[in-house]
Amino acid sequence: xxxxxxxxxxxxxxxxxxxxxxxxxxxxxxxxxxxxxxxxxxxxxxxxxxxxxxxxxxxxxxxxxxxxxxxxxxxxxxxxxxxxxxxxxxxxxxxxxxxxxxxxxxxxxxxxxxxxxxxxxxxxxxxxxxxxxxxxxxxxxxxxx
Length: 145
Known about the structure:
Blueprint: H1 8-22, H2 37-49, E1 55-59, H3 67-82, E2 87-91, H4 95-98, E3 103-108, E4 111-117, H5 123-137
Parallel strand pairs: 1-2
Antiparallel strand pairs: 3-4
Helix pairs in contact: 1-2, 2-3
């Protein structure tokens, strides 16, 4: 943010806001070797979203997070998408994480197998549609998202 010439007070305010939202306020003054893998992952997510980017590439962003931390991160990405109009490209095997999306592409054997769009469905309804497509694919469910 310094490179973008954001003033120091604004940087501090934004860092504290994002840290609180992702539950990492207590580790801001720690070294990487002093924090858990999940905390490192949340710090990486905070660094990715703090500048309100136009696009975020996220590869299994909730992979080593507990359910509360995963939900916080997914809600932050959802906010970034809906309110800040950022494009989020999220790769995941997790149907719960995928249910926060507006559109899901299913990849099988290196090709797009299916696509579903959330539309007016609730997140729960969209989750059920994702599970339904996974079931239709057959085979190992971990290979479909």
